[in-house]
Please model this.
Amino acid sequence: MSVVKLLRDTLVFLSCLLCLAASLPAREKPKASAQSEDAVGQAEALLALSERQNYDNHSVALQTAQRALGLWQALANNEGVARAYTQIAACYFAQSDLPEAIVNYESALGLWRSLNNPQEQAGILIMLSYIEDRKGDWSNSISLLTQAQSLIGEENDPFRMGQIASGLADIFNESGLPENGLIQYQRALDYYRKTPDTIDDAMTIWALGSTHYLLGNYAEAVTHLQQALASVPPGKPYAAICSEYLGRVYGSMGDFPGALRHLQSALDIYTWAVNPREAARVRGIMGQIYQQQGKLARARQYYQEALVTFRNLSDRINQAAIYFAIGRLELKDSNYEVAERNLRQSIESTENIRRVPTSRDLTTAFTASIYERYESYIECLMLKHQAESAQGFSVRAFETSELARGRALAELLRATETNLAPGLDRQLAAQEKALRQALRAKEDYKVTLLSSAYKKEELGALQIGLARLEAEHKQLSGTIRARYPSYGQMTNPEAWDLRQIQEEVIADDQTLLLEYSLGSDKSYVWVVTRDRITSYALPPRKLIDEAAAKVYKLLSSSPSAEVEKELNTAVQELGRIVLSPLTSEINKRRIIIVADGALHYIPFQVLPAPSATDKPLVAEYEIINAPSASILGQLRKEAIRRKPTKLLAAFGDPTFESDYAQRKEAADGGHSDAVQALELAPWRRALRDVEMNGDSYDPTAVKRLFYAKQELANLRKAASGGEVSVSSGAEATRDKLLNTDLSQYSILHFATHGFLDSRRPEYSGLVLSTVTVDGQPQNGFVSLQDIYGLRAPVDLVVLSACQTALGKDVRGEGLLGLTRGFMYAGASSVVASLWKVEDEATSELMRQFYNNILQRGMTPAAALGDAQNRIRQRPEWRSPYYWAGFTLQGEYREIIRLRTATATIGVAGRISIGGAATLLLAAALWYRRYKRRRDYSTTKR
Model:
């Protein structure tokens, strides 16, 4: 999360009012009561008064601004009305009443448009963008900033241009692109230096320093932060912010005395300025520094002091962070009971947090992700299990692991404002989102209010408003949950307990579940069967990740004798680490793998079988992957309600700009030299990937997959007799996918390019046709956000593309990529690839796979394993590079039935068919009788 929000939220109001003051026309302060008697003078005086009041009492300021509005409206002075709406919006924004702030800013915007005043329009758009950024709607925020920029000139209004660049920088930092944030902050600094106000320069330099800190560029961070510190008044809050971040940087560099010196300076200023939350935050960071020095008593003291303040402020996010810090401290000190209590309290606080923490919290200082809190709690429980194995601590650790996996995804989806119920009515989705954002803003404001010299009635009004929003959100959530059962699991994920997993997830006595949890000191694996659970300690995450990374690199490299030799050694080593300790347990026919960390990138099929190290697991076992056992169980329960009427929908062999001309000529009856060259091209056996140009894919560089056409033909053949919809060429479009009723189908298949951005998974996706039938360009990119918004309750999704199983490694959740996206959209199971799969081998693998499912009646998991075993027997495809790339995630025991076309015909159709069949039977009987008589007569003659 971006540290830049620290400035905007800590000095929240000062910054907003400075922006507002810059957007209002210059005017003189009213001088005497004689001026006030004039209506215009009164209105001007009230607006000026409201601006001053808003520094201290937002409610009173709002009432004053509303009185000014009434006067301006009576005067029919639209400019004055627009300014009054702007001030009213600022008052609501100060109270975190974002919906009301938006309404009033938009009223002002409409008036400025009618007055044809582009400068004031730009100012309002900038403020609206800040609100959208605060809500987490980054795309809307960027759109508003772009609109504002189009209204003003760089030379005419450098201040607002600086605001726009700063806003863009904040969005980039918040969305995980601090390298782009640096560029925008430098632009902002260039603009601000053209204005007379030096404080904007200083705070932008601070922002540059804090962004370098995010990137780990500590030397650059120190340079900028020291420069900013020298440019602000000493002993004031601006200086405290600079000193605090110098302390953070020095701490990250290991210069603990330097860190404590700067942090103490920040603490002194925050205490003098009566900023209790900021002071508590600094105490928490100082506690961390003392802990790193091994001074545990001092660390405990600072943590406890910070905790008392956060409790008094009802700041649950920072409470959770401090509980975690204390728990980790006590865990290191082997005080397991105290550690468990604090870590449990950290998790309980985390479970009750509605929003993703921002940078003004201690979260980024203490943990890179919420999952680390669960990881520490698991470690504590497993250490207690080693001391008291009969107390059930191992079971509690396993159930905590399950809870953490669902929680991590829910937090990430909230952070990206993803639709939490695929297929949800747009109006309901908009209402839920607005209420969720309003609650988040109000909770922020409550902490801010408690940090100041608030008035009892103001807190009371806030509590009433919060209670009203809570009730509205609860009622609406109930309505949504009744219509969309998956909504509840995503908004408030629950883990299944061990007994439920054993009874409902593990199908029979031939199924085994292996769930891994990789920790910084130790890792663990739980082995779960229908009637027992055992656990084993494994080496630290770093060692396992290194071994897995080596295997993955070799697996995804083009085969050669040297590569195969190194791969065999690496596979044996990884198997020794993660499988050998539990060799005696691997005695079932089917293994469900719930991976963690770098193990998500490994197809366990290639690891050595315990009984014979010269054979891979796939030779003797059926391998299934799952994000978690609980998610696997939920997918199974949701499948019960499913009633598809059609067999398969396929999208593949799409038309790209690179081959449109050749395809058109072939479709017109010609077979040009260009087409012949296309078929003989070196990339005829191309990998199913997309070449990246910079940070985005180039549609003109996407080439046709030569074997995709054959793959679709094989699909039609395997599914003959079933109702199939195959969209190929220019008909395989993004719009068609998004507008197809996928609930009618059992299988959804893609044969096209995949696109992976592991740093920014929201930019990962599939590529469908990039040109229309008549050659016009169109958006063919199906993004991860598109997939999360799909309603695709199918039995099976097959992503016959490259690297479609990969994504961002979200601790505890696994790889947040296309696989998880389709599961979230309702798919019971997903077959996808882990690396750039070879085109021809993939086509043959898919042919075998579908024949196994549709002709031989195998489950998808068994079908994939059989197809991989057949492919690896072929000499040219013996290397795991060709056959091991595809894995199955999700449901493993359901057989997909071949549904014939008659299955989709309605009642009237069935009656008609029944009547026709009766007529045909009668005619056949009549003909048979007639023929017998005729034959008899002929014989007699």
